[in-house]
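Quick one: structure tokens for this chain, please?
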Amino acid sequence: MFPQSYSIHRKLPPAVKGLLLANVIGFVIAWLSGPLSFDYLFGLTVPSVFSQFRIYQFVTYLFVHGDLFHLLFNMLILYIFGSELERYWGTPYFIRYYFISGIGAGICSIPFIWGINAPLIGASGALFALLVAYGLLFPERVITLLVFFIIPVRLKARQMVLIFIGLELFLLLNSGGGGGIAHFAHLGGGLVGFIYLKWPIILTKVINYLGAQKNDRGKPAGGGYPDSESGNREIDFREELNRVLDKLARGGWESLSSQEKDFLHDARNQL
């Protein structure tokens, strides 16, 4: 799968380079030490997390892969789509998004691996979140998929993500027993990533709703409205709040000035 803007000559950004290296090193160590013992030590299992308190497994399972094809396919997605997202977001935001989505995928999978002795492994949950982010940020970008690694199919990024989501849902619903664990991890990572990207919009809707409720409570009993000066201040406040939240949605927390961050903090206290 190759986006229209993809270029093999561009330098790898630091986070993607580090993640690629860490995954390859993890695979080599597992191969040398014995994959089964390595998988149970660093893969995600319920007994290890809740009985032995190996909380670190919510992170380390992202660097464990079952076989060479599993590793190469995941790293190809990270290399192609992760590189462009890191350049777009910047390294700090990319790292946060990757690990929050990956940890979220593991948490979403807990009900499905409860009572199952096999560990959950692989970066697929975090990588599915990268695909979701790519489809949201570059919906019209043309992607060339190699079906069966031979047949080239061109479609837009938004269409690609919807197809992958539909395929994961189909495989999840038609899998028996533990076969659906990986599919739910993929969907869980995508869902967490989607919420993380859209939380400023969700927050805007919540704040606007709370503000509307507060305005309704402040109306006089006769159905009139507060004086015009107070109303104008309220309108200015909401316009500024929407502006700052829009900026936050586009560029993340780092894009805000110190005054805008203070404004959001004050707005939260007021509401």
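The chain has two domains: 2-194, 219-270.
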